[in-house]
Amino acid sequence: MKKSWLAALAGLALSTSVAFAADLGQPAAPLYKAPPPPPPPSWTGGYIGVNGGWGWSQNSGRSDELGFGNIIKPNGGLAGGQIGYNWQSGIVVYGLETDIQWADIHDSGSAIFDALGSTYTASQKLDWFGTARARLGITAWGDNTLLYVTGGLIYGQEKVAASFDDHLTDLTSFNSSSMTRTGGTVGVGLEYRFTPAVSGKIEGLWYDMGSTTLGLASTARDIGPIDAHFRFQGAIVRAGLNWEFNAGDFFGGGGPGPGQY
């Protein structure tokens, strides 16, 4: 009995020694495992922002009957906001954007018709405008810089007026109009992301909303009815800031925003 008990103890000691020796031959488990590197930030997601800049219209206010070419060149400031959404596939980024702008792009001018001081006057003003555009671009110089082209619809309120003060006949003819016009716009831009959620952009757009003619009443002179011709083509340059957001934050999806990790 005593021998059996001793034999059992010896066998247990031997098996423990073998297991311990086997453990010594295995590499130790790491105490810390580094997390995988974060993915590069993505442009995919929604954004909202503000902008401001300057606009120019082409020369306008021509009157062929009076022999005057374009006598005004509207220009002025603008400010507004934009909202849009981007999708990214590789280095290609595409999306949709719409904006609404207050504007003060205006000018007025006069020209003397004769030695009596008869005067032709024209004025034009763009009060506000908005655009709805597609954007297509590529990331450049790293993932945080986006170069893009853009194009789509433009609409806005144009005000025009013209008059002819005829000192020979003591007659004054005046006409004005305020209208909402539509047309097309194309442009280019550069956007840079300062943080995963904040980016700044510089953008230039060329636009065309057509033209219109104001008729002025006939005078007693032989020159007949007088027309004033206005063009609504021009360019704007603006800078802005965008704040990115995750659409799920607004529709219950939650999670990190675009480019956040």
Q: What's the architecture, going by CATH?
A: Beta Barrel
Order of helices and strands: HEEEEEEEEH
Tell me the number of structural domains: 1
Q: How would you write the strand order of the largest sheet?
A: 1-2-3-4-5-6-7-8
Q: Roughly how many Å is the radius of gyration?
A: 36 Å
Largest sheet: 8 strands, antiparallel, barrel
- Number of beta-strand segments: 8
CATH class: Mainly Beta
Class by helix and strand content?
A: mainly beta
Which overall shape is indicated by the principal axes computed on the Cα atoms? rod-shaped
How many helical stretches? 2
At the third CATH level, what is the topology name? Porin
Task: State the helical fraction.
Answer: 10-25%
Strand content: over 45%
Q: In terms of per-residue confidence, which ranges show pLDDT below 50 for 5 or more consecutive residues?
A: 5-14, 16-24, 247-261
Mean pLDDT: 85
Distance between the termini: 69 Å
SSE layout and pairing:
Blueprint: H1 2-24, E1 45-57, E2 75-89, E3 92-112, E4 119-139, E5 145-166, E6 171-193, E7 198-216, E8 226-245, H2 247-251
Antiparallel strand pairs: 1-2, 1-8, 2-3, 3-4, 4-5, 5-6, 6-7, 7-8
Q: In words, what does this structure look like?
A:
With 261 residues, the protein is mainly beta. It has one domain (44-251): Porin (Beta Barrel). The chain is built from two helices and eight strands; from the N terminus they run αββββββββα. It has helices at residues 2-24, 247-251; strands at 45-57, 75-89, 92-112, 119-139, 145-166, 171-193, 198-216, 226-245. The chain has an eight-stranded antiparallel barrel. The model is unreliable at 5-14, 16-24 and 247-261 (pLDDT under 50).
